[in-house]
């Protein structure tokens, strides 16, 4: 078996840190071994790459991304999928869930079909598409955020079956408001279909949110945003996410959506293994400041023109990692699960993604001591910097 071995790296496998680590990759793009340099060799060393103390971490998994770099998954053309994959790979993401919005059904069907094709196409010289996150249309208009209210409505099983068919069974996560009419049977049915149910864009009370957990909900969407907020007499969805151990909480750490104190609170209460960092990036992420249709980009903030309503984020996973480290004061090996193993678990991809361990895909990043990105690898293949571009 031909292998490539990376030696003399500060290796973070997703749980532990090895000051002098060794990562061995098979020619099929899977991991042979990841651990200390003095561990017994499990294969012929083959080609050797000396990283001279640089850092290796697992590639990031983003379960909530709408686009980036001018590419829009809500438009959903094939080039949008390719461009989004390349943009986020250049910022440390190696796997992602293509995330829809509360669009009319025909538009959503088209996006889902192209998302399925993107998964079939593989990494496309960028991040891997590992499924779909359906955000809407089963959302509460009271917490609609930037969505068009006319597109939102209560759960409809027949409509959902059409979405599942269009996506070829690859919908891994769905955001919905469980308090809407028909919420309980819908959540129970989705759970039976092995679709992860996330509470989001929801005005549910604390009791309603806890009931949704009993029905099968296990996730919250962009915690603290698009939900009934915490209050001491009515803790709302925000309070349920903080106190219910079966819920994993998504969070946007862009310095805009959530105050640093709230980020720190979430980590202190839930721990890194129950926090899922996302970007919620939209096509304007990485673009110059200015007006884009009905939105404005100003100082990294993206909002609907003439309002203070946020319309997605310009965050990247690597920038978010640096912020989490700064806000929480935790070591890198402690917070990495929120960017790797946890989102992989929530996407149902933890048997392939989210850590550096034998048999998993060789998705990893090479970073310098300032946590600046040097290289991104997806299934053992360098996708950033692009080989063809140097």
Automatic annotation (TrEMBL):
Alphabetical GO biological process terms: N-acetylglucosamine catabolic process
Cofactor annotation: a divalent metal cation
Active site: 280
Matches recorded under SUPFAM superfamilies: Composite domain of metallo-dependent hydrolases, Metallo-dependent hydrolases
Domain spans labelled Amidohydrolase-related: 55-376
NCBIfam families: nagA
A single GO molecular function term of this UniProt record: metal ion binding
Root EC class: hydrolase
Family to which the UniProt record says this protein belongs: Belongs to the metallo-dependent hydrolases superfamily. NagA family.
Cofactor binding, note field: Binds 1 divalent metal cation per subunit.
Swiss-Prot/TrEMBL keywords: Carbohydrate metabolism, Hydrolase, Metal-binding
Name listed for the protein in its UniProt record: N-acetylglucosamine-6-phosphate deacetylase
Positions of Zn(2+) binding: 135, 201, 222
Source organism: Paenibacillus lycopersici
EC nos: 3.5.1.25
InterPro entries for this protein: Amidohydro-rel, GlcNAc_6-P_deAcase, Metal-dep_hydrolase_composite, Metal_Hydrolase
A Pfam family matched in the record: Amidohydro_1
Binding residues for substrate: 146, 225-226, 233, 257, 310-312
Domain of life the protein comes from: Bacteria
Signal sequence region: none
């Amino acid at each position: 078996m031909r292998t490539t071995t990376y030696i003399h790296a500060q290796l973070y496998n997703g749980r532990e840190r090895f000051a002098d680590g060794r990562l061995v990759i098979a020619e099929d793009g899977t991991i042979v071994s990841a651990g200390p340099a003095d561990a017994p060799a499990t294969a012929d060393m083959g080609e050797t790459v000396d990283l001279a103390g640089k850092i290796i971490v697992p590639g990031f998994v983003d379960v909530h991304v709408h686009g980036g770099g001018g590419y829009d998954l809500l438009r959903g053309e094939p080039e949008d999928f390719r461009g989004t994959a390349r943009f986020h790979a250049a910022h440390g993401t190696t796997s992602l869930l293509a995330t829809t919005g509360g669009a009319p059904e025909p538009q959503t069907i088209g996006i889902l079909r192209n998302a399925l094709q993107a998964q079939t196409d593989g990494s496309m010289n960028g991040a891997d598409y590992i499924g779909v996150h359906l955000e809407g249309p089963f959302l509460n208009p009271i917490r609609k955020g930037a969505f068009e209210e006319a597109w939102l409505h209560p759960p409809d099983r027949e409509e959902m079956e059409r979405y599942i068919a269009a996506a070829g069974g690859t919908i891994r996560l769905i955001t919905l408001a469980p308090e809407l009419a028909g919420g309980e049977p819908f959540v129970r049915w989705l759970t039976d279909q092995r679709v992860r149910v996330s509470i989001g864009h929801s005005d549910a009370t604390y009791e309603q949110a806890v009931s949704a957990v009993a029905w099968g909900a296990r996730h919250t969407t962009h915690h603290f945003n698009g939900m009934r907020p915490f209050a001491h007499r009515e803790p709302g969805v925000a309070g349920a996410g903080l106190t219910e151990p079966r819920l994993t909480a998504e969070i946007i750490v862009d310095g805009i959506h959530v105050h640093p104190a709230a980020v720190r609170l979430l980590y202190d209460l839930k721990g890194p293994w129950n926090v899922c960092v996302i970007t919620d990036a939209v096509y304007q992420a990485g673009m110059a400041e200015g007006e884009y249709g009905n939105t404005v980009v100003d100082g990294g903030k993206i909002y609907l023109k003439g309002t203070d309503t946020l319309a997605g984020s310009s965050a990247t996973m690597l920038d978010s990692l640096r912020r989490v480290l700064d806000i929480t004061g935790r070591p890198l090996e402690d917070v990495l699960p929120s960017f790797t193993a946890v989102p992989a678990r929530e996407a149902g991809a933890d048997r392939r993604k989210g850590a550096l361990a034998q048999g998993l895909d060789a998705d990893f990043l090479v970073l310098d001591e300032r946590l600046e990105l040097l290289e991104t690898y997806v299934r053992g293949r360098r996708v950033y910097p692009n080989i063809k571009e140097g």
